[in-house]
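Supplementary material to the annual report.
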Amino acid sequence: MITTESTLFEAVFMRYYSLVYQLAYRYVGQRDEAEDIVQEVFLRFHRTPPQERHEEAQRAWLCRVTSHLSLNALRTKKRRIDREEHIFTSKHDDRMEKAEAYDPEHIVVASEQGRFIRSILAELPERQQTLLVLRSVGLSYADIAQSTGLSPSSIGPLMTRAVREFRRKYVERTAAFEGE
Amino acid sequence: MSSEQQPLRANESCLSTKRILDWQHGRLTDAEAEQVLSHLATCSHCSEQEALLLDQEMDVMNLLADLAPQQEHIPDRVAAFVRLSNALEAQQLNVPDDVAAPVTQQGLRWLRSIGTLSLVVRVQNAMVHFWLVCQRQTLVIHKSIWYVTALVLLLMNCAFYLVVPHLLRPMSVLDLTWFLVLMVTTASMVGVVYAHNQESETELEIVLSTSTSIAIIVCARVLLVIGYNILLATASTIFLAHTLGGGIWEITLQWLGPLLFFSAIGFLASQFVSAEMAVIAVLLLEVTLYMSFSFEKGIPTLQLVHTSLWNTSPLLLGVALLLMACAVFNAPRHIQLHA
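Predicted assembly:
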């Protein structure tokens, strides 16, 4: 029995590792952090696997937990940086260095398109971030509905809103940058 | 990016954005889809709206593609699974001990180890695990073991190359080889005995705080010390061969077997008696085998016995490995720390 369970777990890991890593990386943008998130996701899967055993349910479970953990990691990081900025207000250099990661202008100057896009994404509400990231890894609307727990009919309008919001911010940022 | 346009309905019969999206994502019945399709074929406003929705999403997805990791940065799945398995094992072993825990945990670990991993992954896992244990133990082993062995060999080399030839008599390659054999076997044996002697180390709490079995840790320590001694002995051999002549391989064969054999005896003996007693016992054995006691003109003297009995041979290596296996198998499951 244990052997069967463990073999199934290994099979799930091998099948979905790439998807979960891609998802986590798109949120956090750092390899180490993404690897930690992936490990935590599968540890939780091992500890309390989803009730339903079919593939769609497992994939949806993994995507949901990955999104939650990634957003948590981003929130924690942002809080830490905010707190450090508050404490070390006198240390200008430190503050500048720590703020770089969240300074869109710096990111644009550094010509790192990925970080620029991620900074725009971070300004959106978390649900919109989740919808866009899940869509960007190739999930269908039905899969996204299953992963987020939203009704399938609401995904279309919510996605359209998220897409428009993202586009609006992108245009604003790009225009601001070109104006300088 | 195309310009921003809010969807406007040209007339009452035009499709809503939601309707278009439902059609795009196949959430309509065949009849409903047919209706939408026929409307799109005749209404330029709705077909533009439909194209715009598709374009907008594709534009954004193209931008979001920049968030993807580069292919070469995606970690290897097998390595990631090994890491995960280690984490799982560590979690599972963090169960509080009770009286029956050692046996139960051992059984569970065995079941998990045969069930969780395929053969290749299990071998990789074991190798990575052992490598990590060795790395950790290198730092934990008492530093005097490294210094003393190197110092003993250095002093021996200085004595037999610089001092003895001037004070007593020039030494032959054979004499020096025998002294080398004595020194490296003794140094290795003493190192092995003290490397896994739990009573003398305060750092052993680190050992206790890990989930790795004591046998693995002891094995890693002994191999590290023996490997280190072999390294030093090889350096001495090369020095000896280059300064006084002689084949490196021939000299190596003289000390390699005895080094492993006496280290294994010391390793095993130290599990039954104290470290000091084990060292004394093995030293006496060495002296008995390598030296002869005689009286010359009424003065008791010790002489080296040049025997080929203890040269490296498959039998000697086999016995040494067997003794080491016995010692590892006999290693305590739980170490008792002394207050």
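The beta strands of chain B are 291-296, 299-304.
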